[in-house]
Amino acid sequence: MKKTRLPEKLRRSLKAEAWEWDENAQKETEDDVHREIDNSELFNVPRPPRKPVSVRLDLWDVALLKRFARRQGIPYSQLVAHWLHERLEKECEAKH
């Protein structure tokens, strides 16, 4: 794949902007940063809809799931969804 270079004028303006950001960041105090954070709005990301799925599990497994979930302070169905998601991500990484 061939790389394309940015035009010289654009590269210079981006470099100048980066220097400006660095200079301004060095002038900010901790109080300035905290004030900006306090005045900022929450960033809400809409979650995709969830689909209910039925899975038949052994009673022993369900009891263990409930115990683990109780220790973490979350519903056991949420724990199952979390574990499943982690495993799916791991499998996807292994494939690539």
Unreliable residue runs? none
The percent range for strand residues is under 5%
How many helices? The count is 4
Sum up the overall morphology in one term. Answer: elongated
- Cα radius of gyration in angstroms: 24 Å
**Average pLDDT, all residues:** 89
> Structural class, judged by helices and strands?
mainly alpha
Helix content: 55-70%
Overview of the molecule:
By secondary structure, the protein is mainly α. Among the domains are: 30 residues; 37 residues. Helix content is 67%, strand content 0%. The protein is elongated. The model has no long low-confidence stretch (mean pLDDT 89).
Overview features:
0% strand, 67% helix, 96 residues, elongated, single chain, 4 helices, mainly alpha
List the helices and strands and how they pair.
Elements: H1 8-27, H2 30-39, H3 59-72, H4 76-95
Helix pairs in contact: 3-4
Question: How would you summarize this macromolecular structure in one to three sentences?
Answer:
The two termini are 20 Å apart.
